[in-house]
Amino acid sequence: MKGMRARREIGFSEFVALMAFVTCFVAMSIDLMLPALSQIGQDLEVLRDNDTQLIITTIFIGVAIGHIFYGPLADVVGRKPATYLGFAIFILGTSISLFSYSMDMMLLGRFLQGLGAAGPRIVTIAIVRDKSEGPEMARVMSLIMTVFVLVPVVAPIIGQGILWLSGWRMMFVFLLVAALAILLWFGLRLPETLTVEKRSKFSVKIVMNSFKEVISNRVAMAYVIASGLGFGAFLGFLNSVQQVLQDLYHLGAKFPFYFAVLATGIGVASFINSKLVMRFGMKTLVLGTQMITVILSLLALISTFWLSAVPPLWCVMVYFMLVLMGIGLLFGNLNALSMEPFGHIAGLASGLIGGVSTLIAVIAGMLVGQAFNQTLIPIMLGFILLPGLSFAMTYWASRQ
Question: Could you tell me the membrane topology recorded for this protein (predicted)?
Fold first, then answer.
């Protein structure tokens, strides 16, 4: 019996792999679609090319709203029921997108995909915390993030492969099958990690007081706004990158491979961040990165006056790689700075901070994306103005 029980228990490697796959649904749902945006827009009779960007933006709105609710829900009902709910909503949204015949129907499906995928993404952190702590938790999370960082590199290539074999609707079939397979894996192999006696009792008063505590902390909220603005510059890029590389530079089916190269910039930055932050500290590293991003983008914008508004491809790739490395350095550090005062309400605070910063990013990124005019100028302006404002907020907070 002991041998059979041991074989049934989930091992460390399987646990890390399962958590990584559960976490990656948001990134997969976004990056898989990038090569197909123009085809989806044509099939759904979208009038303005820039409106196809909403297929990307809408999923983030769902993620932002989901951030606020899943953390408290997982503390009350348990990790697995909250994750099941998220998967159910994601599967519903994927099915709606699969059979959509209008842009409105597509956007409804994408919103539900984001709302659903936010659950497994958030609850995963709680599950890891339940099963480990300290250095062991850091080890597990770093391994999960290693897989997560690979998704933007691999997903567009998979998406392009699906387009070669079939149409864009098959991408949603792929997501649907993947969700069902991972849900089955999760349900059969992972036991509930939060026992009944450790679950919280739901209290509107406690939740409201916690939210009030977060919102009333001016320094923390400054970092939240700074994080949202920085992320907004990235979303502006993400909204426009398919149009830039496929339309302006006519890369066609080569687009996913060029995007994969750019995505490695964020991965490299995330990898070296742990060493840089120990040497310079979070605040200095963030302020320096924001300033360098603004200066680099300002120089790139000035160069367009003699290189033209559509510079050579190699210049654009170098520029995008450098600014994306900067964004990679900002993500974790700004989130950590905003969370510092809230260790006693980490779950609620993390959800609220993630939701607010993502909503700010969605609005900012949408403004940048919708300004796309067949040149790189709107993206460059986004990487000047948004990190510039983020720098101002960070500088103010660091002086308090």
Answer: Multi-pass membrane protein
- CATH code of the region 203-400: 1.20.1250.20
Indicate if the alpha-carbon torsion angle 97, 102, 107, 109 is positive or negative.
negative
Average pLDDT over residues 79-86: 92
Whether the Cβ atoms of residue 184 and residue 60 lie closer than 8 Å to each other: no
- Could you tell me if 18 and 183 are in contact, meaning their C-beta atoms sit under 8 angstroms apart? no
148, with CB counted inside 10 A (0-12, 13-18, 19+), is buried
Residue 52 CB neighbours (<10 A)? 24
Tell me the residue type at 165. Answer: L
pLDDT band at 272 (very low <50, low <70, confident <90, very high): confident
pLDDT of residue 345: 66
Where is average pLDDT lowest: 160-174, 227-241, 255-269? Answer: 255-269
The distance between the two most distant Cα atoms of the chain, rounded to a whole number of Å, is: 76
Global pTM reads: 0.88
Nearest to 66 by CA among 291, 301, 351, 297: 351
All residues at 6 or more sequence positions from 20 whose CB lies less than 8 Å from its CB, including other chains: 143, 144, 146, 147, 148
Q: What's the fold here for domain 10-190?
A: Growth Hormone; Chain: A; (1.20.1250)
3-state SS, residue 111: helix
Buried b (16+ CB within 10 A) or exposed e, 59-90: bbbbbbbbbbbbbbbbbebbbbebbbbbbebb
Query: What is the C-alpha to C-alpha distance for residues 22 and 126, in angstroms, rounded to an integer?
Result: 13
Give the domain ranges of the chain.
10-190, 203-400
Of 247, 262, 237, the closest CA to residue 374 belongs to: 247
**Burial (CB count within 10 angstroms: exposed 0-12, middle 13-18, buried 19+), residue 117:** buried
- Give the C-alpha distances (Å, rounded to integers) separating 246 from 127, 176, 228, 241, 242: 40, 27, 28, 8, 6
User: Of the candidates 236, 281, 257, which has an alpha carbon nearest to the alpha carbon of residue 377?
Assistant: 236
Taking CA atoms, 386 is separated from 66, 175, 180, 257, in Å, by 25, 33, 39, 28
Burial 359-370 (b: 16+ CB within 10 A, else e): bbbbebbbbbbb
In whole angstroms, how far apart are CA 6 and each of 2, 9, 10, 11, 163? Answer: 6, 5, 8, 9, 43
- 272 vs 329: CA distance, rounded Å: 8
